[in-house]
Amino acid sequence: MKKKIGFLALLLTASVALADPADDIRNAAKKLAEKGNYSWRTTTDFGATAGNFRPGPTEGKTEKDGITYLSLTRGDNTMEAVLKEKKGAIRTQDGWKSISELTAEDGGGQPSPGRFAARMLENFQAPLAEAEDLVSKTKGLKKTADGYAGELTEEGAKHFLTRFRPRGGNAPDASNAKGSVKFWTKDGLLSKYEYNVQGTVNFGGQERDVNRTTTVEIKDVGTTKVNIPEEASKRLS
Q1: Angle between helical axes of 21-34 and 127-136 (0-180°, round to 10)
Q2: pLDDT, tens only, 53-110
Q3: Which of 99, 109, 217, 226 is 20 to 30 A off residue 36, Cα-Cα?
Q4: Where would I find the beta strands (DSSP E) of the chain?
């Protein structure tokens, strides 16, 4: 009997050792997707490197058919946007406009706010896609007391430092890039993740130190409803 118990304990230890934390996160994300809909809240903290740029939260809702609604707060302004597959629309002072309409705006030699917003949406990733991207760019992912944690690869840290880029253009250069990521699950579903990236970014010949922490909290799983204004829906067709 003692030999049998010892053998079972050895098997259990071996199975735990062979468990892949990355697969745990992927499975938790897959189960979340199977629920059909969810909402989330994203907050970004630049710490001492923020300067005057302190973005507010982003609230999002998405359904299984691919429709996503976003409410992005930047300073005193809140922007509404909808996305479906590779198409999107943004609510402006002149009503809803498609991403393609906004990217074609002529700013008269000055940066166009609409064009900037459109570029930002072109680089947007919903939580499930972003979580998968983070997992694929993480090394040494381990189970912790309350979740999972690992370090971003250097290329992964560079990627998340320089995600915003002009359409068809090259990403800004980044040096001394490093980063870390944490994931949490609840009832087998992905419930939260957080990643920090640090480095020096060279954009347009100007170098800037960045220390950015992004936190995404998932909520209202299975009960989220996405209601899109008719005018916005027309811009997605």
Answers
A1: 170
A2: 667 899 999 998 789 999 988 777 888 999 998 889 999 888 999 988 888 776 555 5
A3: 99
A4: 37-45, 55-63, 67-74, 77-84, 87-92, 95-98, 138-143, 148-152, 173-186, 189-203, 206-219
